[in-house]
């Protein structure tokens, strides 16, 4: 039983071809393309308004140099939200429950922010490794600690997203299994369990959006330190 609970996180394949590539490419097909007309429908209007609000909120603490990342960060945010939301549908696979995918997104973007900081302002970038006013005996220790914390950042990004989505999917499957088993024996308890399952599903919808926002927000904070 415990093995079957984790089977949902195995990457599916068909004829030896991993289907995770289709799961990653499919969300982009679902977005409506804005037409050339002045008046759009409500869906496109809502989509445009949401993206504009998010972009303005995300780029508010960044200077003009960081605004070049607007398209990349906004696209990543929308991409993660749609993948996380589609993963809540029955009989679907969530690519963001794979640590390899999340690390593949987090590590290059984090490294790009570090390289930008080292290239544009190396003194300030290296100054983050040593807080101002540090006593002389603590300087070597703090430099080591700050260096380790710097290299842990991409791992924290990937693990946070993977752990939150994996835990949510496991809870949903556990409670759904309990409701299914209790239905013929204790209908009243099964109804209460199904109610908890419904509320948990609503919570997971919020978690799917919040985790995508937190992922991109932390990347923007790393970028803010280096631009």
UniProtKB/TrEMBL annotation:
Name of the protein: ATP synthase subunit a
Keyword Transmembrane set for record: yes
PROSITE patterns: ATPASE_A (PS00449)
Keyword hit for Mitochondrion: yes
NCBIfam families: ATP_synt_6_or_A (TIGR01131)
Subunit-level organization: Component of the ATP synthase complex composed at least of ATP5F1A/subunit alpha, ATP5F1B/subunit beta, ATP5MC1/subunit c (homooctomer), MT-ATP6/subunit a, MT-ATP8/subunit 8, ATP5ME/subunit e, ATP5MF/subunit f, ATP5MG/subunit g, ATP5MK/subunit k, ATP5MJ/subunit j, ATP5F1C/subunit gamma, ATP5F1D/subunit delta, ATP5F1E/subunit epsilon, ATP5PF/subunit F6, ATP5PB/subunit b, ATP5PD/subunit d, ATP5PO/subunit OSCP.
Entry-linked Gene3D superfamilies: ATP synthase, F0 complex, subunit A (1.20.120.220)
Protein location: Mitochondrion inner membrane
Cross-referenced CDD domains: ATP-synt_Fo_a_6 (cd00310)
Molecular function GO labels: proton-transporting ATP synthase activity, rotational mechanism
Segments traversing the membrane: 12-31, 69-89, 101-118, 138-159, 171-199, 205-223
One GO cellular component term: mitochondrial inner membrane
Similarity remark: Belongs to the ATPase A chain family.
Membrane topology, record value: Multi-pass membrane protein
PANTHER family from the UniProt entry: ATP SYNTHASE SUBUNIT A
Keywords: ATP synthesis, CF(0), Hydrogen ion transport, Ion transport, Membrane, Mitochondrion, Mitochondrion inner membrane, Transmembrane, Transmembrane helix, Transport
Top-level lineage group: Eukaryota
Reaction(s) the record says it catalyses: H(+)(in) = H(+)(out)
